[in-house]
Amino acid sequence: MTPAERNALLTKFISERGLKSTRQRTLIVDTFFESDGHFSVEELWAKVRAQDAKVSVATVYRTMKLLTEAGLAHAQNFGEGQARYEPAVGRDHHDHLICTRCGTIVEFEDERIEQLQSAVARKHGFTVTSHKLELYGLCRECQRSEPRR
What is the residue extent of each domain of the chain? Predict the structure, then answer.
């Protein structure tokens, strides 16, 4: 989906709910889609405030809720007690490796894992409608800094 298609979809979604497209909302959306990674609302707010100090954290929360409801963003919880957001359009399915020390999140794809999950579901007579795989541990850098026993 192109940025123009994404913006048209969001504009329609916002309009159907009787809301308005605002300059601040547009700034938040553009900043979110131009950034790589998985952002909490507070991290995204900091990026947005670097461009417009008047944007409130509440506006960022409401905008991310709209993006999620419109199917343009996914909210993920990686065990930190807060949602992290990533774009939901223009991306293939992927899974995550999460470092429990520094919070690094690595995306990966592996067709063998996907096939195995499908086989397990079939074996149990299950129809999978969605799934996510999250593996928690220590990234390479945190392993290097960990004292040896």
Answer: 3-87, 95-145
Fold adopted by 95-145: Dna Ligase; domain 1 (3.30.1490)
* CA 32 from centre of chain: 10
Q: What is the pLDDT along the chain (149 residues), one digit of tens a residue?
A: 677 888 888 888 888 988 888 999 999 999 999 887 788 899 999 999 999 999 999 999 999 999 999 888 888 877 667 788 988 876 667 888 989 888 888 888 888 998 999 999 999 999 988 788 889 999 999 999 877 66
The CA-atom distances, in angstroms, between 10 and each of 4, 40, 65, 95, 143 are: 10, 20, 12, 26, 42
For residue 80 the two structure tokens come to 């930190």
